[in-house]
Structure formats: C-alpha cells, structure tokens
Amino acid sequence: MDSDSTGHRDDFFGDTSARMREAIDLNGFHAELYEVMQYPRETLSASLMIRRDDGRLASFKAWRCRYNDVLGPTKGGVRFHPASDMREVMALGLLMTLKCATVNLPYGGGKGAVCVNVRELSMAELERLSRDYVRAFRALLGPNRDIPAPDMYTNERVMAWMADEYAHLIGYPEPAVITGKPVALGGIAGRTGATGLGAFLALSELQGRLDLPKKQRRFIVVGFGNAGARIAELLHADGWRMVGAADSSGAVHAPKGIDPVELKQVKSAEGSVTGAAGAGIRKLSLAALLKADCELLVPAATERQIDARRARTLGCRAILEVANGPVTAAADPVLRKRGIEVVPDILANSGGVIVSYYEWLQGRGRRFYSDGEVEDGLATRIRGAAREVAECAGELGCDLRVAAQTVALRRISAGIAARSVCPDMG
C-alpha cells in the first residue's frame, strides 16, 4: 500500500488528499493552495459519556472537523458508525469542502462522527448520545460557524434532538444551526430524497459525455439504503432496468430486472435485499455482483469499496458515486485505462447539501420554501455544476473527477487570493 505525505499508509484521507494534489499539480495552482488545504482548520475529539438504561456508564469516541472555511461556514453531516475514526472524519470534511465549492455553495466543509453501533442502543440511549454530542462540540457549532446534518445512521430525529439541545444551551431556538430536521421543527420538504434526486439529475445532464446506450440501460446499486433506493426508483421510472442490488447483508442479481419499489418493500419486511431471492432473482456475493454486466454501477454505501483489484473486473461502463469515496485512488488509473467514466461524489451526491442550503436559508430568514422552489433550486444548481464540470473536462482533456476537483479548487483558490498577500494566488 502507498503512503501519503503524512507518513500514514494508504487510507481514505490519504486517497482524498492525493487526488486533490493531483488536480493542484495538473492545473499549476499556486503552491500555497496545497499548504492551505493539506490539513483541517480545526479538528476536535471528545469522549461522549452516557448512562445506559441499565445504569452503567458508557463512553464513545467522537469527532468534529471544520476542514476549511474560506468560502463560508463549514457544513457537513454527523455519522454514527462503529468503524469511524478521525482520519475518516478529516477525509469527509475535505470532500465536503470540495463538494460545496463544486456546486458553488457559500460554505466550507466539515464533518463529524461517533464511533458507535446504533443497533446496540435503545432509543433513549441514542437520544442521550445525540444530545451529548452537541454539548461536547458546542464551541464549534453555530449557524455562522459550523452547521451539522444527517449522515450514516443518523436521521431527522437525531437532528431534532441535536437542535433542541443547542437551543437549551443558548437559551432560544436557532433553526439554522442544524439541517435535516423534521419539517415541524424548521426542516424542509424533500431533504430525505435529495441525494438520490441530485445524483439522477447529474447523470441525466452528463448522458452525452458518458456515451451510454439509449436502449440497453441496466444498472446495479450497491448500498440499497435511503439514497440508493431513491436513485433506483428514479432510474427505473426513466426506463432503466435494475439487474442487481446489495446491502450490508448480501446481494441479489436478476438479468431480467428487479422492481426497486418491490425490493424496498421486501427489505423493509425482511431486513435485507436478499429476502427477494427466488423466482428469477438469485443471491450472490458482492464481488460477483460487481462483475455482472451493466451499463451503470451506483455505489451508494460506504467508502473504498472499489479498489484497483475490483476495478479490473467490473462489468459496468460508467460509475455514479452516490456514496462518499467509494472508489480508491489506486483504482482511478485502472478505470481510466478501461474507459470507465466516473461521475464523482463531489458532484453526484451533492443534492443533500444543496437542499440543506435552502433549509439553512429558511432558518436564517424565517421564510418557508415551497416544494417547487426547493426542487427547482436543486435542479438548477446541480445541472449547472454538471455542465461546468463537463466543460472543464473538455478544456483540460481529463476525466470528470479531476475536472470536478479543478472547478472546486478554482473557487477556493480565488477565495484565498482575495485575502492573500500573493498576487498570483488565483
């Protein structure tokens, strides 16, 4: 495995940083851009302490990273996951910085996590943990400083607890401090399905660039959760055929197609997509599913699932990254050599943060946005960003990932130049 510039072995943060460095070097940006972007602005770790229902005291490692705030207050989700660590949080914070700049939002990037298996917590314990997270990171949070949102294994209920705890700490409600809240508490309609819808819109805008066939349109979703199920439903309604799906419990494959609405119902009842096996749908391993023929692969689960080894045997023609960092940096040259184009995460999954932006504006201005206004705003912003990335790829003769990084870094570089003593910073 390769080492990154900090001496750590190849990992998620090393991957993310290496890709950014590639775009910086390719475009001849000022050397100080990498100095500014190499490390987070601030990262805080904490030990969250909660009383379990049986009276025992339990502690959980937690982090909050404000990666970069050149373009605005930091924005990023909070995930509750047993594999989370500080390097992962830093990587996600960097990706959020680039993502917000790619779609031209007035935000920097941040991220947070708690190392916990939420399946082992009662609802009351989950609430205590959520509230203690806000107490632990109170100094970083604020509508003008750092704005959390949901991520893996957190949802609008968790965000409601966090927003309520913040209100208790400051003495009054502040709906703009947290996004992804329930509508009744200042949330915004359409936030839950925004990531999937944004990915669908980005894909539709890039159809010409991807050169996918119009008749034979098969896709596979790896990570059939909220975002994965949503993009599957939208693709299915648009005439695509889902031939495979996977979740944390297993995978299924059906060359003749699977109805994503029916699969969602099966997963809800059985706990996994594997419950749909039978009658033309067979169970198989994730490795085997990734080798199955399809035009589009949609990784929508966790990071680093497609490494160089798997990239050599993928059966797809294009990849739509709904998850954060599902493809490793080592896989990039393999995919380029094979002609497999990737719609990168910092563009493809930006729908969630775009709709969060409207929720933040709603909280700041105490003015409610209609469903139509939100959908139109999402479509306009993500389609515009997709066109800009495609144009940049044509200009530089590079792939969409490098182009998206370039679009983001140009904006960040201009922001640094505006406050820098280096006249050629931009």
Polypeptide structure, described:
The chain is an alpha/beta fold and 426 residues long. Helices cover 44% and strands 16% of the residues. The chain contains 16 helices and twelve strands. It has helices at 12-27, 31-37, 86-102, 123-136, 156-170, 194-205, 207-210, 226-237, 260-270, 286-291, 308-311, 332-338, 345-348, 351-365, 371-396, 400-418; strands at residues 42-51, 57-68, 74-80, 108-114, 146-150, 218-222, 241-247, 250-253, 282-284, 296-299, 318-320, 341-343. The strands form two sheets. It has a seven-stranded mixed beta sheet with strand order 9-8-7-6-10-11-12. A five-stranded mixed beta sheet has the order 1-2-4-3-5. β11 (318-320), α12 and β12 (341-343) form a beta-alpha-beta unit. α15 crosses α16. Residues 1-9 have low confidence and may be disordered.
Outline of the structure:
The chain contains 16 helices and 12 strands.
- Shape descriptor reads globular
**Computed Rg:** 21 Å
N-C termini distance: 34 Å
Order of helices and strands: HHEEEHEHEHHHEHEEHEHEHEHEHHHH
Task: For the largest sheet, list the strands in their spatial order.
Answer: 9-8-7-6-10-11-12
Percentage of helical residues? 40-55%
Number of helical regions: 16
Give the biggest sheet.
7 strands, mixed
Q: Give the mean pLDDT.
A: 93
Count the E strands.
12
Which class do the helix and strand fractions yield?
alpha/beta
Please mark out the parts with pLDDT under 50 across 5 or more consecutive residues, or reply none. Answer: 1-9
**Share in β-strands:** 15-25%
